[in-house]
Design brief:
The complex is a heterodimer. Chain A is an all-alpha fold. In chain A, 84% of the residues lie in helices and 0% in strands. Chain B is of the alpha/beta class. Chain B is 30% helix and 23% strand. Chain B is built from eight helices and ten strands. In chain B, helix 5 links the parallel strand 7 and strand 8. The chains are: A mainly alpha, B alpha/beta.
Amino acid sequence: MNEFNDIFRLLGFQFFQNALLGGTIVALACAWVGLFLILRKEAMIGDGIAHTAFGGIALGLLLGINPILTALLVSILAVLGISYMRRRGLAQSDSAIAVMMTIGFSTGLIIISLAGGFNVELFSFLFGSILTIDQTDLIIVSILGVSTILILGVFYKELLSITFDEEDARLMGIPVRLLSLAFNLLVAITIVLSIKVIGVILVVALLVLPGLAALQLNLSFKGTTLVAIGFGVLSMITGILLSAIYDVATSGVIVFTAAGFFLFTAIYRRLE
Amino acid sequence: MLNNVQSGTMKEDKSPVLEVSHLHVARSNSLVIEDANFTIQQGDYVGLVGPNGGGKTSLLLALLNLLPRTKGTIRLFGQDIESFSRWEKVAYVPQDAISFDPHFPLSVRELVALGRVNRGNIGRALKGGDWDAVDESLDFMGLSDVANRRIGQLSGGQKQRVFVAKALVRKPEIIFLDEPVVGVDARTQEKFYKKLSDLNVAKGITILLVTHDLTAVFCRMSKVMCINRWANLAEITEGLEPEKVLRKAYGEHFHFVFHKHECERVFEDE
């Protein structure tokens, strides 16, 4: 019972409310964007952009600017770079991601060595620090997250059409290239707003695991989307609460919970 | 000799739907279609035949403006294809339509509804009328019973019909199909061709279909186009000798034995 008392006590604190609200927005955006990424077979672009964003975080810390904003700028540049390399035939998708990822990450390393290290703050961006989300972070996360969710909601059917059959979508006059670029920008935004919550290293888990778990249930697209979002948000809230009760790393527990949903649904599918 | 019963092609005052003039198409710097000239009329049911690598798919893609041409003009519904904007009148079922990821999370109804997504409703949710058209299309193709099933759970024949339903839901005036019954058993193929004949006759939809099934072409369709870099269009009439037409595409060593009972077998379910 003490655990429940602890949770009720924590719910009264601003930092815990920030964590739950920010985490829910992030989980919702990640699950929805992530489902499209899985179906487009581009899940690794999430990992690539997250690592590229590391360079932007280091740059922000060096210049004294909010690292989320510099990470966003660098991530958007990475998306544009990947799109350019693919379009011009300079590299295939996976190679283009590898190029941008390594450039971004090595830029971060150089900046860290030049600055003599950033210690704890940098560590929090690598592994997430959801309980330190302040009002400014929450405003940024809310604006970016809600915008992402709204754009996905508006262009839901066009994105599905492009994902399922790009050639037919092109024939029907849907601006495939523009929407693909817009979607990749949404991926960049979603990853950047997730960094504070779950960290650069584990963000791809929040993108992939809820969608993958929902896909095991053989539902319609609408059903799969809703269940993926449900798994994502539940993983986030459960992870925050469990980590608060047992005083362990929040991002680790969030990923573990999401992995648990995947394991559970995978077993259910085998038994079905 | 030939038993052509396509009444959809017997309309009077037919207007040209597709006019192709001196069309040249190249792939990887190699010419795959050379100087193609033909006109497809409204209500035509055309079988595109020819050897593998002869340019059938390339021609289809060029006609849809999905493959650039090196020379020549294409007019669709009287309008140059470069400035053509009414793509909702056109439907396309690609060669690999049914080789989608079987785990893709789409119900049959959701997949057919994707046929209603076009430049005219970008950013807007599908309306009641769109869903009525989806249900009508599913009903026409005999798929109402499986509307809520996942697409990966369907048989090969059902998948083919779902993609035709998706093409039909936009209420097109012309449909391009690229080898739609590959890998499907003979009985299902016959049913599929029967359904296309119904479409052609009942709705007057112009159909261009790439196939290797010569029996289906000469029993079901109104015109045959032989393609092997060059394209020759011929009307399938009583006096037509298939061998002469097909030799243009398949070569002098080709021998075509036409069995009239094959046509009768095809029609036994009518």
